[in-house]
Amino acid sequence: MSRPVALITGSSNGIGKQLALSFAEAGYDVVINYASSEKAALEVSEVCQSLGAQTLVIGCDVSNYEAVGQMVQKTIETFSKIDVLINNSGITKDGLILRMKENDFDEVIAVNLKGAFNTVSHVSKHMLKAKSGRIINMSSVIGILGNAGQANYAASKGGIIAFSKSLAREFASRNITVNAIAPGFIQTKMTNVLSEEVKNNILKQIPLGRFGSPRDIADCALFLASDKASYISGQVIQVDGGMAM
Ligand code: NAP
Q: Are 170 and 120 in contact (CB under 8 A)?
């Protein structure tokens, strides 16, 4: 039996890095994607290999439709299949709406939402042919609650939820499940930039009284990719310490 293959976008850092390590540890071969952090991606690849995985490292801006097509093509040439697609790449460009530049809105939507369309557009034909597959899209509690200063990010993450539910309906008859994970506050470089004051305010809103770790998200993704989750589709799983209930 060949090993299952997971393509994980934005897996050079943060949550994506942990996704790559956890999937490698669980017996998957892994495609590691990055935008600019080649060195970090190669380091992730080395650790995945030490865990027994075959890896492919691909630099590709997920907002570029053609480049994503080439990434998927290279993956199929190398592994012949993609069992799990995780749309994890994401960026923030925060600002109150009156001060938000058009580019700040467009770039966040292009990476966080259109990026997921780009991968699904290219990967789904292989999953449909195989009549099997798992798609996991990274949303956020901000896509559920909204947040002052993050209208662009919230729109992209709310969009990811609606996108996931629509795909779940389209692909169900071909045994492909599509779910979204909505992390709360997870300690990565995306959240490290926030001031101590902002972090303390967020902490007060988390019933479990602590920030999450990338491993909390990876454990949920592993479950959604596993046979144990074969009857779960079109759902948004919040991994947020109870923040958004
Ligand atoms: P992170 O540490 O900043 O890592 C982001 C990853 O996305 C990096 O690997 C980065 O690659 C990649 N990336 C950025 N732009 C890209 C592009 N155009 N094309 C391909 N890859 C790109 O962020 P994170 O905290 O791990 O977040 C991962 C996901 O979880 C995001 O979708 C984020 O919105 C979501 N999320 C995070 C939190 C949180 O609290 N951290 C909460 C809710 C949701 P490079 O390193 O090469 O730039």
A: no
Known catalytic membership, residue 153: yes
DSSP string, 118-135: HHHHHHHHHHHHHT-EEE
Closest by CA to 186, choosing from 154, 218, 150, 223, is: 218
State the residue range of the domain holding 178: 5-238
Domain count across the chain: 1
pLDDT tens, residue by residue, 170-186: 999 999 999 999 999 99
Residue type, 213: S
3-state SS, residue 175: coil
- CATH number, position 226: 3.40.50.720
Residue 196 lies in a domain: yes
- Residue 1: the pLDDT is 73
- How much is the CA Rg of the chain, to the nearest whole Å? 17
Query: If you search the block for the tokens 């809103």, which residue do you land on?
Result: 205
Spell out which residues line ligand 1, taking CB within 6 angstroms.
Answer: 9-16, 33-37, 61-63, 88-91, 111, 138, 140, 183, 185-186, 188-191
Residue 225 inside a domain? The answer is yes
